[in-house]
Amino acid sequence: MYTAVGIHPSDTRFLSDINTELDRIRQLILDPASKCVCLGEIGLDYHYPDTDKPRQMRYFEAQMQLAEELNIPICIHDREAHGDIMEVIRRYPKVKGVLHSFSGSPEMAEELVRLGYMISFSGTLTFTNARKPREVAARIPLDRTLIETDCPYLAPHPIRGTLNHSGNLVYTNRTLAEIHGITEEECARVTEANALRFFGIKA
Questions:
Q1: Is 38 helix (H, G, I), strand (E, B) or coil?
Q2: What are the CA-CA distances from residue 155 to residues 6, 10, 36, 188 (Å)?
């Protein structure tokens, strides 16, 4: 088991001292016992009308600065905030990361790959109405692609709506393999190698 440590944008409303929180994250990342390989998930979530966008942005930028300082990859949560996410990413060219459960456009994904980012797909890729995610997956090189559960959410078709877990990755992997015209075994091998490389994990 390896960990990612970060402040989710939806949790920023519960926190009072950003410097104290950043110090705690720094300590966890630097502690070998934490086995931390990523800072995240961090980012922006504009879904709810009462969102404090400036507050979320302060925490996002502060954690991007920390990622740059510690030279650690990031995992970004982007919900209905594509433009602001891209602006922040461009301000920190030394930071590399992954957009988890990607929900943006094919053009956004291609720009992220150009900037050195990975694109990760959850069970949404398998949904019967998943036209945009499948178009994105088809246009992104497989060696820049990851798959995930977003557990306990976003269980894939045909078990959509159930409690998700890592065993269900087989469905997302199957769909991604079909999109790229390769076997499920090859797709699993490549995406596993991508994850090990991205997180700096020795197999």
A1: strand
A2: 24, 21, 26, 18
Q: What is the DSSP string of 136-193?
A: HHHHS-GGGEEE---TTS-PPTTSTTSPP-GGGHHHHHHHHHHHHT--HHHHHHHHHH
Tell me which residue of 148, 85, 159, 163 sits closest to 117, measured CA to CA.
Answer: 85
**CB < 8 Å & 24+ apart, contacts of 179-187:** 179/134, 179/137, 179/138, 180/137, 180/138, 180/142, 182/142, 187/142
Q: How far apart are CA 172 and CA 27, in angstroms?
A: 35
What is the Cα–Cα distance from 127 to 191, expressed in whole angstroms?
20
3-state secondary structure of 18: helix
Q: Specify the amino acid at residue 112.
A: L
Helices 82-91 & 106-114, crossing angle to 10 degrees? 10
Q: Where in the chain is the domain with CATH 3.20.20.140?
A: 1-95
CATH superfamily of 1-95: Metal-dependent hydrolases (3.20.20.140)
In the sheet that holds 118-121, the strands lie side by side as: 3-5, 36-45, 74-79, 97-99, 118-121, 145-147
Instruction: List pLDDT tens digits, range 12-57.
Output: 999 999 999 999 999 999 999 999 999 999 999 999 999 999 999 9
Measure the CA–CA gap between 109 and 102, rounded to whole angstroms: 8
Hunting for tokens 């602001």 — which residue is that? 84
